[in-house]
Amino acid sequence: MAIECFTWFKQLLLCSRHRDGDDEANLFTRLPDCLLIDILSRLPADCLFRCRRDCRVWNTLISSPYFSTLHLKRDRPVVIIQCQRCFTNLFVFRLKNNKEMMMFTELLLESELMINKVGKHDPHLRYSCDGVLLFSGSSRSYQYPIYTIRTQMWKKIHCPTPNLTPYVSPAIVNGAVHLLLGKDLEKPDTPPCAKGIMVLNMFMERT
Amino acid sequence: MASTTETKQKKMLILKSADNDEFEIEESVGVQSETIKNLVEDGFTFVPLPNVYTKALIKIIDYLKKHANKTDSNDEEIKTFDKDFVNTTFDDLFELVSAANYLHISCLMNMLCQTIADRIKDKSPEAVRKIFHINCDYTPEEEAKIRKANAQAFEGQFDESLD
């Protein structure tokens, strides 16, 4: 963490050099960067997206992995429950306002994410880490939908392996999902490795 | 801890602000600041603070005095004091948070950072820029690109006020 922070600060220093010339007398330059980071890390995710638009320095700052980690530390933990009968119903429990009260919000999967609609398989929640949810679709699908709670955005990743074995947790090392590439190697869209392991780093998917 | 220091003769400290004003406070009040505490442990009783201006220092001394006498019974009173304390302009808050950072008063820093965050979270990007006195250094194309990438974050009405 310390090294990460250091290298990143160097980057920010380079950015701030441009800034100093613009307006030397302004008060903002007197606000130390560590305080700015502290303040921004307390903001909710949607607000941070707006702040990215404010200037380049803020954008660099907010996009840094160091900042993501800090922001996540301040967040409250959530519990996600997927309904066994209807996979499209995901329930998210979270603590509200640091009180003992549990809030119950429903997260519904969008219909366009029902991969292979003809099949019987709905997206199945496979793994979640730091607010990123990894789903697997039907057994013939090459797509894995990923949902980030923080940004409320969906994206899909392509994977040459047909599917993760149902009801078995994928191998996870240091927050990265490791998928064994085996079948369907004749397909043109698969990489030329015979037996490889695809590593999906959940940490990188966060921002 | 407060009771043991009270039985002895009260030790005093002198704080000197960046505008050369001097303030005398009790040692037990001053040591809530880590920076002052370290100096006191090294035997100093005169503390120059070249990064803290008089205006901020007066407010911070008030805060320290109030919080030094913290007991279970005056909990509500301190809460009201804190609420009044942060009810000021953004520029004053930045000044105070910089001073609190320099003096290493973590509870005050926490409170001020949280206050600033709470007050800017519903503001529009334009208002945030003015509050922090920053210039937009994006080209219009770049700005549109960022806006488009996170379109939903920019939906709805935002607070344009600067207070």
Automatic annotation (TrEMBL), chain A:
The lineage of its organism: Eukaryota, Viridiplantae, Streptophyta, Embryophyta, Tracheophyta. Coiled coil: none annotated. It comes from Datura stramonium. SMART domains: FBOX (SM00256). Pfam families: F-box. This is F-box domain-containing protein. Residues 25-70 form the F-box domain. InterPro entries: F-box-like_dom_sf (IPR036047), F-box_dom (IPR001810), SCF_F-box_component (IPR050796). Gene3D superfamilies: 1.20.1280.50. It comes from the Eukaryota.
From TrEMBL, chain B:
It comes from the Eukaryota. SUPFAM superfamilies: POZ domain, Skp1 dimerisation domain-like. Residues 11-69 form the SKP1 component POZ domain. It holds the Pfam family Skp1. Keywords: Ubl conjugation pathway. This is SKP1-like protein. The keyword Hydrolase does not apply. Residues 108-153 form the SKP1 component dimerisation domain. InterPro entries: SKP1, SKP1-like, SKP1-like_dim_sf, SKP1/BTB/POZ_sf, Skp1_comp_dimer, Skp1_comp_POZ. It comes from Datura stramonium (Jimsonweed). Belongs to the SKP1 family. Involved in ubiquitination and subsequent proteasomal degradation of target proteins. Together with CUL1, RBX1 and a F-box protein, it forms a SCF E3 ubiquitin ligase complex. The functional specificity of this complex depends on the type of F-box protein. In the SCF complex, it serves as an adapter that links the F-box protein to CUL1.
